[in-house]
Amino acid sequence: MTREIKEHHIRENEILETARIFFFQKGYEATTIQDIIDKLAIAKGTFYHYFKSKDELLDALVDHIMTDMSQLFKPLVTAKKSAVEKINNVFQLGAAYKIENLDAFVVIVKTLYRDENQIIRDRMFQKSIQKNSPTIAKIVNQGIKEGVFNTSYPEYMGEVMINLGRSINETICNTLLNEKIDAKTMSAHMKRSMEMYQDMIERILGAPKGSIKIYDGRDFDRIVEHFLNAIQKNSNADKATKE
Question: Which PANTHER family does the entry link to (predicted)?
């Protein structure tokens, strides 16, 4: 019985990983179930044993991706820290995750922010609200009890903050993808966007001015440098291939 469960889990992960590659590179709409079946050399019945449809597969893939991130935040609820420290840690952990996985971050931005992958971004956003809003609500309630946050709607703060974060994230990623902007301007624009986000978070939480610190400017310099180097490296590789 143990061996069968393990094999089931392995096959499911193989399908999810293959779907991730196809969805990101080819686009969700352009990818067919047959593409995945052919790549894995499995029977159609095998695929449908795990997933009833392409939409169900996408939902499972997004859940798989977002679970890793949400697991970083959950321990904060019971940590012996102030609410302000916890809110700051939520953002800092997210930033640290990107910095520690810069190569993957570059690939994700370049593929996920193509027009044909809008549906994947939408689904990831919905899953983020579902998984992370309860954690943020608990931290906000703690802050209200401590007298550092002043809001009558703690249960909605997670969704509001994630909505605002999505807008800022879209701006930052589109800035990274804008080949007409130089590195210095790009980094400055991203920092300015995060300063605005930081100010908005303080206002909606009713937090003291300057208490919310959700980014380190040096992180953006590193991200921009790494992103532009990766683009240049790929460009040189493409030229070499054509020659």
Answer: ACREF/ENVCD OPERON REPRESSOR-RELATED, ACREF_ENVCD OPERON REPRESSOR-RELATED
What fold, for 1-52?
Arc Repressor Mutant, subunit A (1.10.10)
Q: Is 210 left (phi over 0), alpha (psi -120 to 50) or beta?
A: left
CA-to-CA distance for 173 and 125, rounded, in angstroms?
A: 15
Q: What is the CATH number of domain 55-241?
A: 1.10.357
| Residue matched to tokens 């052919």 | 38
The three-point CA angle 197-200-201 to 5° equals 85
* CA angle at 196 for the pair 204 and 98, rounded to the nearest 5°: 100
Q: At which residue do the structure tokens 């990274």 appear?
A: 176
29-48 residue pLDDT tens:
889 999 999 999 999 999 99
Is pTM beyond 0.85? Reply is no
Question: In one letter, which amino acid is 53?
Answer: S
Cα 54 to Cα 142: distance, rounded to the nearest angstrom:
41
Please measure the distance between the N-terminal and C-terminal CA atoms of the chain and give it in whole angstroms.
Answer: 55
- pLDDT of 166 higher than 70: yes
Q: How confident is the model at residue 243 (pLDDT cuts 50, 70, 90)?
A: low
Are the C-beta atoms of residues 36 and 22 closer than 8 Å to each other?
yes
Residues of the chain with CATH 1.10.357: 55-241
In DSSP notation, 150-173 reads: --S-HHHHHHHHHHHHHHHHHHHH
Residue 204's identity, in one-letter code, is I
**Which residue ranges does the chain devote to CATH 1.10.10.60?**
1-52
The two structure tokens encoding residue 122: 């939408």
